[in-house]
Batch of 2 targets.
Target 1
Amino acid sequence: MDLLQLFMISLCSVFFVVLFCYYFYKENRIKGLRLPPGNDGWQLPFVGETISFMRPHNSTCLGEFLDTQISKYGKIFRMNLLGKPTIISVDPDFNKFILQSDERAFQNSCPKSIVEIMGRWSMIALVGDPHREMRNIAVSFMSKAHLKSRFLRDVERVAVNILDSWTGSMNGSAFSAYEEGKKFAFNLMVKHLMSMDEEDDERENMRREYETFMKGMASLPLNIPGTSYRKALKEEHRRIDERKKENGGKGLNWDDYKEMEFTNCVINETLRLGNVVKFLHKRAIKDVHYKGYDIPSGWHVVPILSSSHLDSSLYQEPHKFNPWRWEGVNRGVGLMAFSGGPRLCPGAELAKLEMAIFLHHLVLKFDWKLAENDYPVSCPFLAFPKGLPIIVTPIQS
């Protein structure tokens, strides 16, 4: 037996000893705890059920894997995700508790791949005081006062430029609304953060780099089903437009935006059924006891945000697109599309403003239809298998 064979045998022996010790320590540590039911996935210890969990599915449902687990174990269960013991929650109350207990019972725990892409000093990766300080800066930057005085004008200008480009090159031919939505969001981002205009040559190079790792992070409610919704949208925006023309006004202002009540309902319903981020990664920083279950310190916890949006106890006919359900509701109360608690996205109101302004000019300028059937897919970020191809027709004044 040569030296290489001896080395390989020794390496394998060490590996199995370490693996045995790991399982032995783990079993003794959790002995006596009342863990949520589930499958630890020891048949594939470094993969577990990750592949099944991450399998793409229509965003208007939780997917076959979660549906199966819920039927077996209930709304709080455990599994092996990314090689780690993990508690999965599709329980709305527990999800709310997790988000509101940030830095007290749970802490953000991004996978290493996301941290490497976004950078360890990005807000999504930071925890504790550094995150609070960074978030306070972002909240101040995107405050209501700044939305009124600065962002609204820029959002309208970029939206008009994007839509004007459709009139010539895209008139009558199919194109990806999904890609145009991402372009709109990116143009605004570089304008606000870097003061870079659409004409800047470097901006296009940055956009291509940005899209390589931010797939599915932009969504506009262009796949609005049914003529009744479009009719209500058009009536609202025509009323605003006609009043401005009568008063000799140019450009939208904050009062115009606040009048877009049905538009806000459409945006909320789109976010409910097309949640951009399906779940979050958290880690228990102390032993937690909830609804009779023990969650050991150090265990990972994944709240499925979209589960609250599809819960029949919270929404009547939750799989049905119905923007009227939001009438009289305080601007999206109950939505988890932008997370919640101390880590609520500071750009939530800016995102809604961008969608509302875009929709205002869209419904006044164009009629549109799907060139092919398409639907939003969670994989795990939101995407469209065919790019949401649409054909637009200019509305004659």
Target 2
Amino acid sequence: MTEDSSSSKKATVEGVPPRYSTDFGSRPAPEEKPAAVGPISLSDDQVVPPVSSIQLDHPELSAFGSANYQYKPSYEIDRKGNILSHDTVLNSSPIALLRFLEEKTSAPPTVTLSVRGIKGKRDVNKLLHTCDFSFVVRVSPDPSAIGAAYRPLLYTMGDWELACRGRNALSESADGDPRCQRPAGPDPKRTVSSHWREELLAERASRVRQGLPGFIHPASLLEVESVDPERTAQPILLDSYLVDLFDAHAPNPTSISVGPEYEELSRQRADRRDELTATVEKYCNSRSPLKELKVIKETYGYNWDAVVEGVRAKVLEAWALPEDVIGTLTINVHTDPETIIIRPNNSLSKTFSTSLFNKAILTTVLYYPMLCATELVVGARFDHFRAASPLVRWKVLPGRADGEEHTEDSALALAASLDNRQAPKVAVLPTGEWVYLVGMEEGEWLRKWEGPIQEAVKAKKRGRVLLKAPSDVAAAPALRGY
């Protein structure tokens, strides 16, 4: 199917032949490429059903044309699931690019903890190191268990964050930050001095480790005890978890009907959607041969510092080392897949996508360093796209069918039917609204996995073995929920 001819517009990029129209009823034959070892090249025809059979009736998509749009771009997937595409149409058509990003971020990423223990023993004048155990534990829930409960939120980072927004300089637009200096001229963006750059980036990294959502200004996130009861639309935290008053991750945002008290949250969602579509259009309209759009998948809800320390304590309980042996324990958090990268279909841009080995060869002849210098001048980076998935959050509990006020028993019974938690958890906000917890708390996760983790340490499992989920959860006494 094709778009209505009355609304069909040309969407092209100069200097990147051939040019395409957004009417893709007749798609040019793909180029024949020799088989290669490495990333797998795919077309969506091979991996997903036609777009016409997928529910994509989101407002942010309708802004670019008909819902019957069905172009299938080509892309590559590495062994971790990261996506790279040099598709010409994605670089020139906003509707094609936005639909591609929506589809490829529709599933949450897999978050795992890698646990590795190294023991060292001194032999004469040398210290001999050997791997004692190495395994992987899954943190995020299985996608099959989530179903259609939520969809990751695709958004662009707020103006208070450092990012490259169409150029190669980190910038922000946050007013009142003395660490940023507004440049002369009409450009409202602020350039950040190198003296404060690392501090600003460290602040964001700290918020990520604390599990705070990136799509809400950090100054707006307050614990419920500090919130004015009259400000019902203010983003709040309860036990350091986001109270998702407007359900930012609803599978179908158009199905949400809210009262006047949530008009501000509705406006914020509309602003995020408008910024997303405007930035996609800006990327497609850019004429830079070295432009790049990057989407990073992220999660929020878990305090990762607390999770790592909890796992460390359980490992050390089971790791018995002789007095003459030195042990080194490493625990890291991994997200797979992590990125989606879109670049133009030209030889210069493809150089940045080549392997490290090829880049090393090109460096010896100074080609790659010169290209990097050129990219600093004429490149256009859009690296502030994010796709956020919640690990745990509070949601507003629907009212009773009979119209009566909730009691604790009725709230617990309804929460148990809405989420598959073993023990439903509810709370009352200062406004009188009931909320229920969705997802597993950090302490509940640790209680579930502490047995398999300690058994893997004692059995000296090696080779990044993925531990199997325990069949039952033993009661135990503190992380949140432990």
